[in-house]
Amino acid sequence: MNLTVTPHRFDKTVRVPASKSHTIRRLLVASFAEGVSVIDRPLDSLDTRSCLSVCRALGAEITEKADETGSLRWETRGMGGAKGFFSHRGTPCGVPLDVGNSGTSLFLAIAMASLGTEAVSFTGDEQIARRSAAPLLNALRGLGVEVSSGKNGCVPVTVRGPWRGGKVSMECPTSQYLSALLLAAPLAEAGVDTEVETPLLNEKPYIEMTLSYLDAQGVQYEKDAAFSRFAVRGGASYKPVSGAVSSDFSSAAFPACAAAVSGGQAVLQGLDPSDSQGDKAFFDMLREMGCLVEWEKAADGSMLLTVKGTGRLRGGLFDLNATPDMLPAAAVLAAFAEGETRLVNVAHARIKETDRIAVMAAELGKMGVDCEELPDGLVIRGGARPRGAVLDGHGDHRIVMALAVCALGAAAPVTITGAEAADVTYPGFSRLLFP
User: Which of 27, 124, 136, 195 is the 20 to 30 Å CA partner of 103?
Assistant: First the structure.
């Protein structure tokens, strides 16, 4: 699908979709729990549907209903651990489980599936087929799991437990490798302890999010202050998880950015300022670059986050190591900012759905923006109004959304190819962009 965006001022109140990271973690915990979990207002997107499909195939019973307000509800009867694999009607053992485009579902589910004694295979789309799980797979081998994979640790991947525990060292250019081990390790057999050393760890806030789930479950674990060593004791069982999923700061960044580059205003509903999501740091960046960013309480007691563009953005130096998913949106802000902006310490943005550093430099370059690639980021010299162009979304949801937002402040209409990719995390995103 091609999306053509005509420049205009963005002034909207937006109900931000639920968090993908929270939705997938809740689905997995609920699927391995004993009892029934009620997940209200989850993110209903291609990525989370992929995770839901995997959980059903493994044996979880998931029923879709509407709550009393008409919003989506997923009632999940868990398997009570890995012994329930394939015990219900679903995908037969041996048929590969398709994670679609969802890297989060792939990495986390691989580790969870490693707990069982059945062989479980995974596959995915063309982008997933290029995303290596090698560090995670090597760690699982060190923990006693039988593993096979395609070239460079890419799908097809097959794992077979049991998880025997031990001590492994694993570099984590993506935090998802470590989150996978942390979610699975408590469900290993009693007496099976898992110790993980992490000489490299990016995206620390996502590990804090994962640990918050272990804390809520009363799981026993140890970690050092530097997040370079973790020890988890097996023998736990997960309890049901219920409640509404909070809105996604990653998705909220795009309407906020739309207001910033167009001199408009975005009023964002559903966000929780106390949530563990690391991408809420993007709003500090917006403030530092010259936007007005303000929390206020609505009449119903919920919180509203308002972002106002002032018509003047300024460049700066920003370390995106903890928030690599924000690189596309940050690059767009930099294109409109006066002076030079350096987005650094984010080399792992190159191993997402696309090489987002190279892709953003190339696509913004088509609009006349002065971009320079660094090994670990971008230097953007902005201030001039980007010109209209035909741009390639590269099948990457965050690239599509960032380029569409950039179009709002451009000098002429912009067309983005492959715009349907936005549905991976933000269904209906394109409707936001029309007055």
Answer: 195
